[in-house]
Amino acid sequence: MEPADSRREAQAMRTRTPIALALLVAVAALVAAGCGGGSSSNSNSSGSGSGDLAANQTLTMSWGAEPPSLDPGLATDTTSSNVLLNIMDPLVKLDPKTLKPVPSLAQSWDVKGANVTFHLRHDGKWTNGDPVTASDFVYSWKRTLSPELGADYAYQFYGIKGAQEYNGCDAKKDDCNALKAAVGVSAPDKYTLKVKLVAPQPWFIQQAAHHSFLAVNQKAVNKWGEKWTEPGHIVTNGPFKLAVWKHDAEIDLAKWNAWRGAKNVALKRVNGRIITDGTTAVQSFAAGEIDVNTTGIPPSDLPRLKTEDTYQNYPALGTYYYGINVKNVPLNERRAMAFAIDRKQIIDHVAQADQIPATGFSPKGIPGFSTIENDYLKPTADLAKAKQLLGKTPNAKKTVSLFVNDSPGHKEIAIAVQAAWKKLGITTTIKQMEWAQFLEFLGPPPSKAVDTYRLGWIGDYVDDINFLELWTCKSGNNNTNYCNPKYDALIAKARATQDNGARYKLYAQAEDMLTGPNGDFPIIPIYWYTYFTQESASVKDSFNINLLDQFDLSKVKVVNT
Amino acid sequence: MTKFVIRRLLWTIPVLLLVILFTFLMMRQIKGNPFRKSERAVPAAIQANLDRKFHLKDPWYEQYANYVKGVFSADLGPSLVLRNQSVNDIVRSHFPISLELGFYAFLFAIVVGIPLGMISALRANKPTDYLAMLVANAGFAVPSFLVATLLIYYFAVKWDVGVPTSGWRTWQSKILPSIALGFFPMAYFARLVRGTMLETLQQDYVRTARAKGLRWRRVVGLHVLRNSLIPVVTAAGPLLGAVITGSFIIETIFAIPGIGRYYVSSVSARDYSVTMGLTILYAVIVIIGNLVVDILYGFLDPRTREART
């Protein structure tokens, strides 16, 4: 999502010059080491054998960023999302393995075409003592949709009848109250939540696991206004309470003993330190100050840390790809470029985080993947085929531009791709840009100067529509100028197909149209993302990250090592 | 003197207005959308809601006028990115930390830098001088991120002398960042003191003082040092301003919740109001710093005082 922040690739370990050492000794002498005592705090060790539950159920971890907002309506980033999903009670959760929705606050649900009904548990409670009711959800969802809130993720609700109309309402021209009343979400009784969708949406239940769909407490919002998310103000309903939030420094969670499932929650406290820099997080972990590093590992440290037991790698629902401006680069040249790239080599020698070579745009792990995937593209390069394809292109472009943003790692991959295309006789000019300008430059429509560019896509919910709809003509995320009415028709048909098996077959056709034997290749998939962390042995087994980069702290147990 | 101070204070108003205007116009020139944080496009309706909420589509002069009005009633507006915080909140919760860090760093710079420069000057062209200047030159040449990383690596990880790698909680956690941030000003002071002191040592009055039998220690302490400190005071003003407004690099490396990182992150996030608020903060501090230095200077050297009444 956001560009990784760690900018310090030229790292200390390599640059230990004599001058720096002399300087260090001098400083050491001058400061005269006035600091003894104190021990680094690896909190969880208390006698008894390994594997048993430790007496001290405290987890110390790093958060990768200051959450821009802990309002479910306004949060858009991973850190906010993970804090929220642990202090709030979602309607459904996703099974970590199958990704099927499993009951959480909603004990069951019925889907009849475009009508969805959630049946809420009766023992959901807010930390102020009020019960969690269906009308809390009605209030919260309409609040997120309200134009006054200006929620970035309001579009998550666009599948609900009347939602888009209400969100787009302009108080100067429209009757916003009427539009608000017309939104298809209602609470016929205290524990029944009814949702009317624009059209049947097979993935709606899964989508409801997203943090945008969490309920907020109306009393707290009314009382504190924009400041309702501060600790002391915030009213939550999940397994943990927000104990401390020192902006840019700390987010601590404390187990809430009155939560409906509290007896199955082992952790008593989560001490979270906000560390944005990968190197700092790695060093804190090395010093035993944190048990889990979710901030990340800088590319330069990866090869060294990967071999350690603490390194953990999780598959992600995301694709790192190169987009091609189809107005500038002809079809067979695009295909040739796709075949010239050796994904495996890029992963093994450049990206180095055990990513998976992407042979299509739909990521591995998406439901129905075995149906959707095609094996036209291979993990390795096929130069002969690439040359043959290029031979069929009399008007091939011999110099292409490649735009990447300036976060660490992208340029290195671009150089590898440049070398691969060089073998086809294509000269590539790499242009690096700062993130916000880069996005503006890509459009859509992209600037004419763009021949190829790098981007990634991380899924919001677990249905391939979330990926494949990108390449429809009107998609706001289609920066390639690609527009194929046949493709659009296929996606529209898939949207209307409720049966999973049948829908996956349509997805397979769509994927084929992008990257299959007769594919249009507006994009070249490079790899499927992975998430990686450092986890100490005491929590390694129970701390897990799912495909959507979410971790469930209510499942974490600190064991003796 | 009073007249001088009042006139200088009144001058800050047009200076601030210009600072606001230039920042405002420059921020609008760089491309980018504060509401688009990831590759995800912002749907048109949502963009319209946000533009309306934050008045981003009003004519620029109206936005400027509203902003100036806000500034003079001490309201720097809402952050466009940290949606539950205002710029005032951000300054209030993060500036004191940078101030504290800057103060310690400056203290380190003075306490270490000035003696280092003195020793160098008094032992000019001897091994002690070379060693001290090696430290000073290294402080000049080695970037602070390297100093910081080396300090963390050796003191917090490898030798584990009881200081944490990062954070800003216990007094132990404040040692390494203060040294890392104070390293450059320390080196600067050391070189400055050495240079001016060498010059002062050549002066006639020093020779006279020696000739009339004054003890060397007293000559150095009373005459030489005092006269050598004038340029240090001059340099200290702007340097202090720069140090207490925080350092993006040091704060990021040590995970310190200071204001410094916002100078960079607000620009890359296109958080217009935060960038402007911080620019104003910086301008005010530099203006005050320079004013204080000018006043101090007047006390130290009567000649400059007469020139400006």
Work out the largest interface and the residue count of each chain. Answer: A-B, 82 and 75 residues
Q: What is the radius of gyration of chain A?
A: 25 Å
Report the CATH C-level class of the domain at 318-528 in chain A. Alpha Beta
Determine the N-to-C terminus distance of chain B.
7 Å
- Main beta sheet of chain A: strand number and arrangement? 11 strands, mixed
What's the short story on this structure?
Chain A has 561 residues and is an alpha+beta fold.
Word description of this protein:
Chain A is of the alpha+beta class and 561 residues long. Helices cover 28% and strands 19% of the residues of chain A. Chain A has 18 helices and 17 strands. In chain A, strands 1, 8, 9, 10, 11, 12, 13, 14, 15, 16 and 17 form an eleven-stranded mixed sheet that branches. A four-stranded antiparallel sheet of chain A has the order 4-5-7-6, covered by helices on one side. The longest helix of chain A is centred in the last third of the chain and has 16 residues. Chain A starts with 17 loop residues before the first helix and ends in a 26-residue tail after the last strand. Chain B is mainly α. The longest helix of chain B is centred in the middle third of the chain and has 36 residues. Classes of the chains: A alpha+beta (561), B mainly alpha (309). Chains A and B meet through helix 1, helix 8, helix 15 and strand 16 of A and helix 2, helix 4, helix 5, helix 6 and helix 7 of B.
